[in-house]
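## retry 2 of 3
previous attempt timed out at serialization; input unchanged, resubmitting
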Amino acid sequence: MADPTDARDADTTTVAFVCVQNAGRSQMAYAFARRELARRGLDDRIDLLTGGMRPAEHVHPEVVDAMAAVGIDVSDRTPRDVTADELRASDYVITMGCSAADVCPAGWGGESRDWGLDDPDGRSPAAVAAIRDEIERRVAALFDELAD
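## retry succeeded, writing output
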């Protein structure tokens, strides 16, 4: 994966999945996006990034369980900071329920989208599964768009 702080490669699209703690929704989106990259053979066309403004110490346990239920292991993932430079270098910044202005008020040259999803932290397994399934659907739709 290219260093997102480098100048954008004209042939590569960078997609950032961002959330405050980077411990739930953005981790699920990133995991589904990695799967889509592999399934569609787009590794050479799309770079992925995930992070948060105030990252938690670990991915939420209910998220680890919900992703394991669909065969994706996120237990080894660690929430991380996302920098303004990384966001400015991204073509798409996908926030999960916070506005893009809250994430990076200085702005960037790419497109921002807020998916407005509920936070899975502390939710029931059924509620987390519903959020997971909506994220999976949205990631697939995003990749349909990017693959064109």
